[in-house]
Amino acid sequence: METGSQSSSADLSDDLIMEILTLLPPESIVRFRCVSKSWCDLIDLNFLKLLVTKKEPVNHQDYSVELKSLIESDEDAVDYMYPFQNPCGDGSIEIVGSCNGLICACHAGCVFYVWNPYTAEYKVILSMESPLGFLTKDSNRRMGYGCSDINIGYGFGYDSKSCSYKFVSIFSEPDTDLSEVQMYRLGSGLWKSFDSCIAYQFSREEPGVFLDGALHWLVSSHMGNDESQPRVLISMDMEDGVFKEIAQPEHMDDFDYTFVGGLRGCLCLLCSVSNAKFEIWQMKDYGVGESWSKVFKTDYAELMTMGIRSFRYIRRLVSLRNGEIFFEACDQHGVVDVVRTHLDEKERCQNSGGGYKYMKNILQMEAYVASLVSVKSGTFVGDELKNYPRRLRRPG
């Protein structure tokens, strides 16, 4: 007769074990992989899929705690080693997007990679050494070297149907008013070219925002030869690559700058008039134009109370469960300050200084949730320093 200690997990179904494991943080999951070979196989084959398809990540609050402590003191800041860090005397990095614990970033303007900061694994998907996608034709021009008239749009997201991560590269030439689209599927190593071009102009400075299974951009449309038309909000479905236009709130032409963002899982627009005002508009029912609602507003006087003397525009937004938000305020010289405040006006009024706190001189802000998702490359941070390709340097 078996004792209770001997029956252990043998009496538990795999589904029940998986449900229990999804309640745990990644560091605990890593330890449980060492329990037995069957547990290791179970976690590797099934857990990552469950983790990234849950409606709300278990460790959703990880970054909120880190952001709160970081904005008050840098003592709790974590210094990550990232791919290609200072191999050529510079450590420039531009974040394209973040999804389910993976960060898509660009190094030195010419190397695109997907990186898991938690496991340190990364995968190069586009570079001068790896002529993929648009690089197969006139690579220097396609990368934008010496061609200031070229516009290249990017995006990174997740296709829940195929359980795959996809990187989108969109190349625009102003003299055609058309853009070519290609998509790279992580793990396959293959690019898919779209048969037809789209009539939009993209900007590299505004990567696509991933929400509701689609990437979103604000783009220029010159259809009908009317260059005075306002920018168009579009989406690209990550499953089938179909582009659609999304209705915007009225009077968007009243603002100098507008950026796409995400707020509490909903699509939003960050609207600024330089040194005057800033508003956040949220689409509460995705795809329904009538559901746009103004959920936040502030003005120059309020921002001045917490030390920001001037701003050109507000961009990038991170929201927390308790209603607090973080956004980037950029001035005319490109200096970025990250502002922390509350969506609710009453909450702001109850706090000293209007409820605003901020971090100065931040390069870029991105929300990140730790996970065990693998990019299936077997390459880890630091490996690239052993044999760094010279051709990745920018031409002098």
Describe the structure.
This protein is of the alpha+beta class. 16% of the residues lie in helices and 32% in strands. It has helices at residues 4-7, 14-21, 26-32, 37-53, 62-72, 139-143, 300-304, 345-350, and strands at residues 93-99, 102-107, 111-115, 122-126, 151-159, 164-173, 178-185, 190-193, 209-211, 214-219, 232-237, 243-246, 257-263, 266-273, 277-283, 292-299, 313-319, 324-330, 336-342, 357-359. It has a 4-stranded antiparallel β-sheet, with no helix packed on it. The protein has a 4-stranded antiparallel β-sheet with strand order 5-6-7-8, with no helix packed on it. The longest helix has 17 residues, at 37-53. The chain starts with a helix and ends in a 37-residue tail after the last strand.
Could you give a short description of this structure?
The protein has eight helices and 20 strands. It is of the alpha+beta class and 396 residues long.
Question: Layout of SSEs?
Answer:
Layout lengths: L3 H4 L6 H8 L4 H7 L4 H17 L8 H11 L20 E7 L2 E6 L3 E5 L6 E5 L12 H5 L7 E9 L4 E10 L4 E8 L4 E4 L15 E3 L2 E6 L12 E6 L5 E4 L10 E7 L2 E8 L3 E7 L8 E8 H5 L8 E7 L4 E7 L5 E7 L2 H6 L6 E3 L37
Antiparallel strand pairs: 1-2, 2-3, 3-4, 5-6, 6-7, 7-8, 9-10, 10-11, 11-12, 13-14, 14-15, 15-16, 17-18, 18-19, 19-20
| SSE series | HHHHHEEEEHEEEEEEEEEEEEHEEEHE
Number of strands: 20
* Uncertain ranges: 1-7, 52-75, 130-148, 388-396
The radius of gyration is 23 Å
Give the overall average pLDDT: 75
